[in-house]
User: Fold this.
Amino acid sequence: MLKIGCREKYRVLHLNNEIGRYVIGGAGTYMNEMYRYKDEGEGFVHIITDGMESDIDTKYYPGTEDIIVVNADEVHKLSQLDFEIIVVQFYEFAGMLTEELLRNRKLVYVIHSVPTPEPMPEWDAFGGNEDVKYKFEKLCFAADVLVCVSEAEKDKLISIYPTLKDKIRVIYNGIAFDSVIDTNLNYKKSRRKFGFIGRTDYRKGLLECIREFKDLDAEFHIACPKNDSEYLRRIIEYIEATNMQDKIIFHGWCVGRRKESFYKSLDALIIPSLYEPFGYVALEAMINGIPVISSNNGGLDEILEGYKYKYNPYSEGELKDILNEFITDEEKCVDNQMTILRDNLDRFTALNMTDAYHALWRELDGTGSK
Assistant:
């Protein structure tokens, strides 16, 4: 166990496997924002689960205080610490939460995603994956409070476990951004350069999106890591079979300044996800001031409330229709949609999110009211 600037007592310990530059996806963005606006009673436990213990570098963390680093087999040692509330982010942690660790403490499970296939099978929400189901259920039923990151995710959870309804809260994720957003004006000159940024995961709808570019006079730029080799192979095979190499361009994974440059180069970002519990990528596009073409499933529909350029990812041809609409709309129409995006962004600030969580901590420890 490595302690970095720790206190003797905490109100809350956050258990996570993503923080600082050790980030995989939206849960890591959430955790970094929670750390940015932490109060004096919050500690952050980075659980090493992937064999990278020897590569840990303290400069990759978001700060130099209130951070504890443990291997997965050391989590039980946290029971020796003085704290009142334990917050978990990932169902894989279920087996690490011993009776001693939970004794006389409140447990909050922040559900960034109900771990089901997409679309969710009617016969078994977890698609026969009993291990995932067991761990997820164990955490859900042990928790004092379940936090969902969107109303859509709350509804999904209740559809599987109606009895959990009374202990579910919705707290939207949030992100920090400058008070003045500079609109990317590329769309005023051209609406032919579209982009995607995210994992190569079938749930992101990337292959379905690429197919819509076959007969479209436009480019599609992709910034992604190599998460699923088989899925990526299918994508490349399709691109080669349809001779689309000149209009589908891969950029590799973009972070930091490369990500900023990627966003600045685009006329619009496409978010073709079959389902998103929340959708941090939409907020990133919004703070970079670029238009979004997005599916309307899950939390994305809530982030993009009132916005025009959305489509049903399960409805054939809708994405192509929306792309053509965006390309041909008058400039004033796109300007109005950009105003909607800027106005919506104010609902999803990091401070709004952390204030809601801090109020929950006060409620749970008896120092505040519900």
